[in-house]
Amino acid sequence: MLGQIGSFFAERFRRWLPDSFIFALILTLIAAVWALFAMDVGPVKIAQAWYKGFWSLLAFAMQMVLILVTGYAIAISPIATRFIDWLAARINKPIAVYATVIFVGQIFSLISWGWIVLTAVLARELSMRVKGVDYRLTAAAVYASFLPWHGGLSGSIPLTINTPENFLIKAGVLSEIIPTSLSLISPMNIVISLALLVTLPILFVMMRPSDDKVQTFDDMRSGDAPVKQMTVEEEAAGLSLPDKCLSDMLNASWIINVLVVLMGLYIIVDHFAAKGFDINLNIMNFLFIIVGMMAHKTPIRYVVAMKRACSNVSGIILQFPFYAGIMGIMMHTGLGQAVATSLAAATSAATFPFVAFITGGFINIFVPSGGGEWAVVGQPIVEAAKVVAANAGMTVDATQAFIAKASMAVGYGDSWTNMIQPFWTLTFFPVVAAGCTLQARDIMGYTFVAMLWSFVIFGLGVTFLPV
Questions:
Q1: Mean of pLDDT values over 271-282
Q2: What are phi and psi of 436, to 5 degrees?
Q3: DSSP 80-106
Q4: Collapsing DSSP states into helix, strand and coil, what is residue 179?
Q5: Tally of domains within the chain
Q6: Can you spell out the DSSP letters for 295-361?
Q7: Taken in order 169, 367, 385, 403, is the CA torsion positive or negative?
Q8: What pLDDT does residue 13 have?
Q9: For residue 165, how many other CB atoms are within 10 A of its CB?
Q10: Residue 280 Rama label (left phi>0; alpha psi -120 to 50; beta)
Q11: pLDDT of 7
Q12: pLDDT attached to residue 26
């Protein structure tokens, strides 16, 4: 019953929603027309504001790209493969497959959203080894395991607002960073993350199809297509010349790798020893680079892993300048301030976090990137939160906590509607769909049901839980 309802809506969304880049263009035009009619500015000033913002997020875009590719590179390392083999050997029933994929996948997502590919590898291996596993539901569990990511260690918004000289500080919207103690390790985020971790496996077990409707991986296999991809080690070895030479010796030198890794580990240990649990985009990316180098052992293997990972970043590279252009329109025409004033006037301290959550979910349909979305709505949301906090007579510390709560609410909204926005299936479908006929539309019905359930958890959490 739950699967049938989800499939009905998923088919409609598949027919209605164009490519995510089209949404970036449409949203650009909407922002321009909105500014034209709502503000005292002409088309020339709007175009200038758009271009002024267009290149303002290049550093931020690169940080987002690195979060994805460095996490992905770790996920396809030999140590990750051995872990999957160890886990797969202990799972032998379809129910256990569904619960394991969604549970373990959420833990991976809390570490890095780039690790969804590791969940995809796990799902594929289990589906091929255990008889009677519905491959559509298992693939849907991979995507649904993405739900808690914005409350994890790679969450774009909490890491951005804790990064020195982030774009909101440079724009004068924030006067200082918002520490992760008010976002990632807040009681609100911990409770929400645990609630998802416990309940989503139950939900997916309940959605399992009857035996006569199960479609296994073998049922969906396409002809003689290869089932397994060449490993990173195999591809790296294939790049060597037939005879021994200096270049291959350097490429495969574990000594060079170890020396650089040791230097990197010193920086990481020194950072956390001096600053405690202070996680921002820069240190997180640096940590993933060093761990990735360690996991792949030699420079050339890490090069191969990063090459594979970079095949998934075209959407971020193409769309971020347009998101930045929208932010330019919002900021340099005064539209963002006007939106913030309207939000503040229509809400209170009790209702604003929920409104921020709904706003994040709505904008994510058009801007399916947590970092890109924050570039668009971060300024008006923070401005509105400051006004609401002032109206409520909050202290400086309470205002900072309120901004953190509203910011996390936007992040939860982004995670929430990912379940009906298939953009991020691009990150793991090359793994789960290789050699079979699986398509994104085959899983969106199940993820729609997960979206309905997560709305309850996110909505109650941002409304009633403290930071």
A1: 84
A2: -145, 175
A3: HHHHHHHHHTT--SHHHHHHHHHHHHH
A4: coil
A5: 1
A6: HH-SHHHHHHHHHHHGGG-HHHHHHHHHHHHHHHHHHHSSHHHHHHHHHHHH--TTTHHHHHHHHHH
A7: negative
A8: 58
A9: 9
A10: beta
A11: 54
A12: 86
- Integer Cα distance of 279 and 301 in angstroms: 28
pLDDT bucket at 2, cuts 50 / 70 / 90: low
pTM of the model: 0.80
The whole-angstrom separation of Cα 92 and Cα 130 is 6
Contacts for 437 with CB less than 8 Å, ≥ 6 apart = 220, 221, 222
Tell me the pLDDT band of 110, cut-offs 50, 70 and 90.
Answer: very high
CA distance 425 to 430: 9
Q: What is the pLDDT of residues 233-275, one digit of tens each?
A: 888 888 888 888 999 899 999 999 999 999 999 999 999 999 8
Residue 69 CA neighbour count, 13 Å, CB half: 24
**Tell me, what's the pLDDT at 434?**
76
**Residue among 420, 317, 329 at smallest CA distance from 366:** 420
Mean pLDDT of the chain: 87
The two most distant CA atoms of the chain are separated, in Å, by 75
Q: How far apart are the first and last CA of the chain?
A: 37
Other beta carbons within 10 angstroms of residue 283's beta carbon come to 18
State the Cα–Cα distance between residues 49 and 327, nearest whole angstrom: 9
Token pair for 49: 């504001």
- Residue 305 backbone class (left: φ over 0; alpha: ψ -120 to 50; beta: rest): alpha
Are 116 and 427 contacting, i.e. CB atoms less than 8 angstroms apart?
Answer: yes
> SS3 for 201-269, per residue?
HHHHHHCCCCHHHCCCHHHHECCCCCCCCCCHHHHHHHCCCCCCCHHHHHHCCHHHHHHHHHHHHHHHH
Q: Which domain holds residue 277?
A: 2-239+246-464
d(CA 415, CA 279) in angstroms, rounded, equals 20
Q: Given pLDDT bands bounded at 50, 70 and 90, which one contains residue 382?
A: very high
